[in-house]
Amino acid sequence: MSAGNIEEIIKKHLDKTLKETYFPSLGKLYKGKVRDNYSKGEQRVIIATDRISSFDRVISTIPFKGQMLNQISAFWFEKTKGIVRNHFIESPDPNVSVVTQCETIPFEIIVRAYLTGSMWRDYKKENSMSGISIPKGMKKNQRFDEIILTPSTKAASGHDIYLPKEEIIKKGMVDKDVYEQMEEAAINLFEFGQEHCKKNGLIMVDTKYEMGLKDGELMVIDEIHTQDSSRFWLADSYDELFAKEEEPEILDKEIFRGWLMTTYPEIFPNIKPEQEIPPIADDIKIELAKRYMKSYQIIVGMEFKPEVSNVKERIINNLKKAGYL
Ligand SMILES: Nc1ncnc2c1ncn2[C@@H]1O[C@H](COP(=O)(O)OP(=O)(O)OP(=O)(O)O)[C@@H](O)[C@H]1O
Ligand SMILES: [Mg+2]
After folding, report:
1. What is the pLDDT of residue 124?
2. Which fold has domain 3-103+251-321?
3. Which of 198, 215, 245, 271 is 20 to 30 Å apart from 89, CA to CA?
């Protein structure tokens, strides 16, 4: 499919995006910022909508985003199930995953291979990070000698707060044994992801893992190695751009944060919970859809074939066919 063609399809889909769903018979609805989660007993049906969140608010929708995200996550869950158990059961529709309901662990594990994003912003301010040892004098987007793991909780503001291992165990959030399993799982998953991406010319910069317990056993839940939970840069141009102190070519949603901050500096990054979302230009939505598609293709190794269709109708049909509705 030609680039022009894809752009036309994305444009046609701008007003056909999946904003929300409501299928009460699937179970109790928990509306995340991006995904609609329905839980019933042991089963959780996660519908990835096209919503995009930034600065802890739902800002807009991006054509085909839900489908790409769900398919990427399903891809990784299949690929990594031998490394650590995960919640994935099946994907009856491109936007939907059926997973095992788990008891969630109240912190996530962030893994970083490069100094960037919020960690760079904090590092620049203080030239150090409380509790985490990072060598002095590092540059923005520089690679760490060793990957850095930070268990973190989400504060009310949505900003991640570092939570040291000792505190997690002292507070009884999980047993020491489970915590150590989590660390090992995160390192192994991240290394697997990095290797896979590297072969295809992509750098997996950082990511976060959410985990849970099922009958006492550790499970990876939520989503893994998607553009919403990870940063991806193109490997080819990284060295040259880094040497020139320029930004790498980004294939995740970080460019959206940048766009929001330059377009509306009076609103972002400190948007208030009740503050109205300003208009989002079609151009940035199209650009994001294209970048999400590019990383989909690189990660999954298949061309993404967007189709202008009624997503909600397709989901209903597929859920009926698979016996969930
Ligand atoms: N297997 C599972 N068992 C229990 N809870 C799960 C499972 N998988 C995912 N979850 C939870 O479902 C929710 C998904 O919500 P979602 O990620 O869409 O929005 P959010 O976490 O509120 O915001 P953000 O956009 O910042 O991620 C998360 O709270 C996640 O922890
Ligand atoms: Mg989430």
Report:
1. 87
2. Phosphorylase Kinase; domain 1 (3.30.200)
3. 198
Two tokens at 111?
């893994």
Residue among 91, 221, 256 whose CB has most ligand 1 atoms within 8 A, to mutate: 221
Whether 203 lines ligand 1, by a CB cut-off of 6 Å, is no
Does residue 129 surpass a pLDDT of 70? no
* pLDDT tens string 23-69: 999 999 999 999 999 999 999 999 999 999 999 999 999 999 999 99
Q: What confidence tens digit (pLDDT) does each residue in 224-251 have?
A: 999 999 999 999 999 999 999 999 999 9
Could you tell me the distance, in angstroms and rounded to a whole number, from the CA of residue 286 to the centre of ligand 2? 23
The CA distance from 149 to 168, in Å, is 14
Q: Which of 202, 206, 166 is nearest to 186 (CA)?
A: 206
User: Is the peptide bond preceding residue 269 cis, with omega within 30 degrees of 0?
Assistant: yes
Q: Write down the architecture of domain 106-191+205-233 according to CATH.
A: 2-Layer Sandwich (3.30)
Q: Is the CB of 97 under 6 A from ligand 1?
A: no
Q: Which ligand is nearest to the CA of 160?
A: 1
DSSP run (H or E) holding 319: helix 311-321
Which of 36, 37, 70 has most ligand 1 atoms within 8 Å of its beta carbon, as the pocket-test mutant? 37
State yes or no: pLDDT of 219 exceeds 80: yes
**pLDDT score of 9 more than 70:** yes
pTM above 0.90, yes or no: yes
Rounded Cα–Cα distance for residues 211 and 221 (Å): 5
**Which range among 181-185, 220-224, 305-309 shows the weakest confidence by mean pLDDT?**
305-309
The set of long-range contacts for 115-122, using a CB threshold of 8 Å and a minimum separation of 24, is 115/139, 115/140, 115/141, 115/142, 115/143, 115/144, 116/140, 116/141, 116/205, 116/206, 116/231, 117/206, 117/231, 117/254, 118/159, 118/160
